Amino acid sequence: MTRYRLIVAYEGTEFHGWQKQEPKDAPPLRTAQGVLEAVVSKVVREQVVLVGASRTDSGVHALGQVAAFSTSTEIPVERLALAITSRCPDDLQVLSADIVPDDFNPIANARIKKYRYLIQFGRVNKPLFDRRTVWTTHHHLDLQRMRDGAARLIGTHDFEPFASASHGRETTVRTILECTVETDSENRMAIEVIGNGFLYNMVRIISGSLLEIGRGAREPNSVAEAIKNQDRRLTDPTLGPEGLRLEWIEYP
What we know:
- 39% of the residues are buried.
- It is built from 5 helices and 10 strands, in the order E-H-E-E-H-E-E-E-H-E-E-E-H-H-E.
- It is of the alpha+beta class and 252 residues long.
């Protein structure tokens, strides 16, 4: 048996998240993991168990999801990514495949991750061709205020105020290495967050908090106050999933 690592991209709009979901007394939901695991099993002609690094939510996209599986297939590794993608639906692709040690665990071995949240703002029309991948607000947003708030998130903190109540984690302490706000056009900006791990809806709540700062509804220091006082009321709202994308995951 050989263990393989896949770098996977998908548009999350039509997926119920990454993780397989098989409700009792109901058909399985369409998930990225479920679809990809079924395709890989057909390609290598044996049932595989596919493990993914990040549990992206319904509607969230990925450019650099990492998945791993073991198989006895004799397909050359340089042909594997194309062989799998050729059988995938249009909203999912395998970008690359390589061989990793037998004990490689895409969850436990992950060191840092990067997420990107894309926002179109101001009095402009809702985007037509990329409307599934951009969050839209008609508010004018002050870039410098948002950058000021973002800088206060960097470091190791208890990020429970930036997590949904059902996060299911034993500890909510995480380290944010970078949090930046950049523009790529007059009315579009990207919030980029790099950290050692993320809680349920954490990046969407960070993005919503910075949006409130950008439109003047809160002060830049409100995010630091939320952490200090563990006050979830200072971190609303949670933005929609369409603007969020998992960019990459780094391993030792």
